[in-house]
Design goal:
The complex is a heterodimer.
Chain A lengths: L1 H31 L6 H18 L2 H28 L10 H20 L15 E4 L2 E4 H23 L1 H11 L1 H6 L4 H22 L1 H4 L5 H16 L4 H21 L4 H15 L29 H20 L2 H26 L8 H18 L3 H23 L4 H21 L1 H4 L5 E2 L10 H24 L1 H11 L1 H5 L5 H27 L1 E2 L6 H14 L6 H16 L5 H15 L3 H13 L10
Antiparallel strand pairs in A: 1-2, 3-4
Chain B lengths: L2 E12 L2 E12 L3 E5 L6 H8 L7 E6 L2 E2 L5 H6 L2 E4 L11 H12 L15 H10 L15 H12 L6 E4 L8 H18 L2 E5 L3 H7 L2 E6 L2 E6 L1 H5 L2 H8 L7 H4 L4
Parallel strand pairs in B: 3-8, 3-9, 6-7, 7-8
Antiparallel strand pairs in B: 1-2, 1-4, 4-5, 9-10
Helix pairs in contact in B: 3-4, 3-5, 6-7
The chains are: A mainly alpha, B alpha/beta.
């Protein structure tokens, strides 16, 4: 009983930092509609800045002063980011901003590495709260008790700010209808900046306040990001009480999970989230949140037409050129282009469901990695030949997508995105923690192609045929009745339902189709590398695909593979440098600001402006 | 003439508010029936129940004698009911003709087909439909750049794509210029006459209603208070009171009912 109570207290103490970070994310999303991927980075910055300040400021006042100051400093950094990076892209197509925040993650990661070094920092203990208290014979750190006491005050202060003050009224009004707030004479840009300050300051505060418990390290940003997403989704986007309750549930669950079911800790949190969303699709205290419910931002999407003869010839020529690479180029080029081709198919599969279907998935890696693991497991345990494994990979991934899609499509918008993320994480933790079968962190190795395809050159041609074929198939599907029905469901589900289209089912089929195509890419990937590791399933891989689709141009047909090719090639070049993340991050931010329609979209615009391409509507 | 649509004791409550209260009526073959009433009278609630968007608290809706209450909108559509929306709903990323083609593809149950090019399917029939509403010359325009009146006409073409027996139009002329209103309703009346479609519509503009409706029903506070020919309704003192203001009829609390 004593141990149980002590663990409950630990859970409550852990909930403090989690709540602060989650409420910040929730606030920012509520007002600006931006899913701030970089929120974990601000949390990390809070920890590092707090650490440095604690070295300088002495005593009790110094410690708590450092925590507060860290919050304020991180808030100000958030303001700089908002003004320099996000303001220029508010008018871009929706969700494009999250690409910018992804760039911010990379930049902050490398800057932190530059300033504080790669070593993990051990957090200083709070002066006056270094001891432990015995509660029912169990030791409980004094600092935990302090955290348990402080968090409700922070929560209350925040609640007071939001519900009782003029600023709070503006924030709530903007959450409901920001255009109306603008029309009533409120300076929107400063409201956004203010909210960004508050949200980031909360993240920084959370990072600093957990220092005595967890210290600071460079993996903090992604580690907390998943928990924060889960908390915000369980609680309901934009709900403070929801965030608090969910933070407590998750933290307590984690503590108990560690002691009673150590193998399942990573899975547990996502299971809870899935269960909650099955019964309450918009979180415990949330309301329906449809991406784009505030009208389309930016230009409406153009009608599509199959490529004309000229473009077809161009594509054929490009494919011939690609086919010449093994003859002309180096072995290195062959391997690199193989990688790029596989990634392009992966990106194109996401593009299909995101661009055509408006289904924003944050967890598409589940099907890429899933396909890869299906192939690897069959080869390892059943000695399946490559040819069969390459067929089983998309089947497995497609099946997974059928199941995952069935659950995820109960929700819409951001909740849908979060659910897909949760399932990808679920799959990842399954693979990671079920080491006996999957090899865990060591992965599965020695999975090589059949003898006839074992040379780099032959495998390259195999990849070229499958990937180019896959991308062309996806493209054709977009022009088929299926693709049209999918777009119809996205453009106006009301009208689509009123003309006999079962919108949920068509989206489900598209989800499975895209998953299977990602599985094809995953299967090829295993054989090109000879091995597979859990990181093919992790969030970063999902984000890669997502970023690429937006960079290429989400409102275009070829955005996926164009973005994929540019991104992979650039990354390959940049990773030779020490601070490549910084460079890549800045590059992404630059593309986002300079080409808000994505690479393809902006090139098309340029073409139309210069008269190389003609726009049908201009002629009227 | 035979009854196309039969509505029996249809009711819908939102909490304590009865948005639609025991409404019964019959729509006969080839009839152009108007449902009128002040804001908050329950017209849209009524419509949403007929089309399956909203489940009635009680009551039955029959199409050609077959019960359709409880069916999803898409199932009701398959039974031969077309509808247009109060606020237009079109596919903004497609061209005008593709919007109509989409309805035809769905009508022929080809939406899961992955082989043919969608923009070539049922092109001729789609153009015919656009011609019916006078939109053929704009067939290849991007739907997102259309004027509002043209969107309304496009929606009508889309609603006619599966040769419906019954057409439900929720404020077909809302947001249009006066001249356009008359033209659109004239077009609808022509279609009803030429194609033997029956049509139920709601409308605020009395000129439009009196000029084209064969019969009128008046809804107030969720209840049908009158029904009859144009002249009967025009001279009905109760209807006049509702429209010209009896003072107490427009309580703020009751206006919520239509939400």
């Amino acid at each position: 009983m004593g141990l149980f109570f002590a663990q409950l207290l630990t859970g409550l103490a852990n909930a403090g930092a989690l709540f602060m970070v989650a409420s910040g994310l929730s606030l920012i999303f509520g007002v600006t509609r931006i899913v701030n991927f970089a929120h974990g980075s601000f949390y990390m910055l809070g920890a590092y800045v707090g650490y440095t300040l604690m070295q300088v400021l002495p005593g009790v006042v110094g410690f708590w002063g450092a925590v507060l100051l860290a919050g304020i400093i991180v808030g100000l950094i958030g303001v700089i980011v908002e003004i320099c990076v996000l303001r220029p892209v508010y008018s871009a197509p929706e969700l494009f901003q999250l690409v910018a925040t992804f760039g911010v993650i990379l930049v902050i990661q490398d800057l932190t590495l530059m300033i504080w070094g790669a070593e993990d920092l051990l957090g200083p203990r709070a002066p006056g709260l270094k001891g432990i208290v015995r509660i029912m014979d169990e030791p409980v750190p004094q600092y935990d008790l302090a955290l348990i006491a402080i968090t409700p005050f922070v929560a209350f202060a925040l609640w007071y700010l939001i519900t009782k003050t003029r600023v709070g009224i503006l924030v709530r009004a903007a959450t409901q209808d920001r255009e109306m707030v603008g029309a009533l004479g409120v300076n929107q840009s400063w409201l956004f900046t203010g909210v960004f300050f508050l949200g980031c300051a909360l993240a920084g505060l959370g990072g600093a306040v957990q220092l005595p418990k967890g210290g600071a390290d460079l993996l903090m940003d992604f580690n907390i990001l998943t928990s924060v997403f889960v908390v915000v989704v369980i609680g309901g986007m934009g709900s403070l009480p929801g965030a608090y309750l969910a933070a407590v549930i998750i933290s307590v669950l984690n503590v108990f999970g560690v002691s009673y079911m150590p193998k399942s800790t990573l899975v547990l949190m996502f299971l809870v989230m899935v269960v909650v969303l099955m019964f309450r699709p918009f979180g415990l205290f949330g309301r329906e949140e449809v991406a784009g419910e505030h009208g389309q931002v930016g230009e409406p999407e153009r009608p599509i037409k199959p490529a004309g003869l000229k473009i077809r010839l161009l594509v054929a020529a490009a494919l011939v050129l690609l086919g010449l690479i093994p003859v002309m180029g180096s072995n290195f080029a062959v391997v690199l282009v193989t990688d790029i081709l596989i990634f392009c198919l992966f990106a194109a599969s996401l593009q299909f469901m995101l661009g055509m279907g408006g289904l924003v998935s944050f967890g598409h890696a589940a099907f890429f990695g899933g396909g890869a693991y299906v192939a690897a497991l069959f080869v390892t345990y059943a000695h399946t030949p490559m040819e069969l494994a390459l067929i089983l990979a998309p089947l497995g991934a497609g099946l997974a997508a059928v199941l995952i899609g069935w659950v995820c499509l109960r929700s819409t918008g951001v909740y849908f995105a979060m659910l897909t993320l949760a399932f990808a994480q679920l799959l990842w933790s399954l693979v990671f923690q079920w080491g006996d079968i999957t090899g865990g962190d060591d992965g599965l190795v020695n999975i090589w192609p059949s003898a006839w395809a074992s040379s780099n050159m032959v495998f390259f041609y195999l990849t070229l045929v499958i990937c180019a074929g896959g991308i062309l198939l996806l493209r054709h599907a977009a022009h088929s009745p299926f693709g049209y029905a999918l777009r119809a469901a996205r453009d106006s589900s009301r009208q689509a339902e009123a003309m006999g289209i079962n919108t949920k089912r068509i989206q489900w089929v598209a989800f499975a189709f895209a998953g299977a195509m990602a599985g094809v890419a995953g299967g090829l990937f295993v054989f090109s590398k000879g091995s597979v590791f859990p990181n093919e399933l992790e969030i970063a891989r999902s984000f890669d695909a997502l970023i690429v689709v937006f960079l290429g141009g989400v409102k275009t047909l070829s955005g996926g593979w164009v973005g994929g090719a540019s991104f992979e090639a650039t990354k390959d070049y940049l990773t030779r440098f020490e601070y490549w993340r910084l460079a890549l991050g800045l590059l992404i931010i630059a593309v986002v600001i300079l080409a808000p329609e994505g690479i393809v979209g902006s090139l098309r615009k340029l073409g139309e402006r210069t008269g190389i391409l003609n726009n049908a509507e201009d002629k009227r | 003439m035979s009854a196309v649509l039969t509505v029996e004791h249809l009711s819908r409550s939102f909490g304590a508010i009865k948005a639609v209260d025991d409404v019964s009526f019959v729509l006969r073959q080839g009839e152009l029936l108007a449902l009128i009433g002040p804001n908050g009278a329950g017209k849209s609630t009524c419509f949403n129940m007929l089309m399956g968007q909203l489940k009635p608290t009680s009551g039955v809706v029959k199409l050609n004698g077959e019960k359709i209450t409880g069916l999803a909108p898409r199932q009701i559509w398959r039974k031969g009911v077309g509808r247009t929306f109060q606020i237009t709903a079109t596919y903004s990323s497609m061209t005008v003709i593709e919007n109509v083609q989409m309805a035809l593809i769905s009508y022929h149950r080809r939406i899961y087909s992955m082989l043919p090019y969608a923009h070539r399917m049922y092109w001729g029939r789609a153009l015919e439909l656009l011609d019916t509403v006078g939109m053929a010359d704009q067939a290849d325009r991007h739907c997102a750049v259309l004027a509002y009146g043209d969107l309304k006409r496009l929606e009508l073409a889309v609603a006619l794509a599966h040769d419906p027996k019954l057409l439900l139009m929720d404020e077909p002329t809302a947001g249009m210029a006066p001249r356009e209103r008359i033209a659109l309703m004239q077009l609808t009346a022509d279609i009803v006459r030429d194609q033997g479609v029956s049509c139920l519509f709601t409308e605020h503009d009395m000129d439009v209603v009196f000029a084209h409706a064969h019969r009128i029903m008046v809804l107030n506070r969720g209840q049908l208070i009158a029904g009859g020919s144009v002249d009967e309704i025009r001279n009905n003192p109760q209807v006049q009171e509702v429209y010209l203001g009896g003072g107490m009829l427009f309580n703020a609390a009751e206006e919520k009912a239509d939400a």
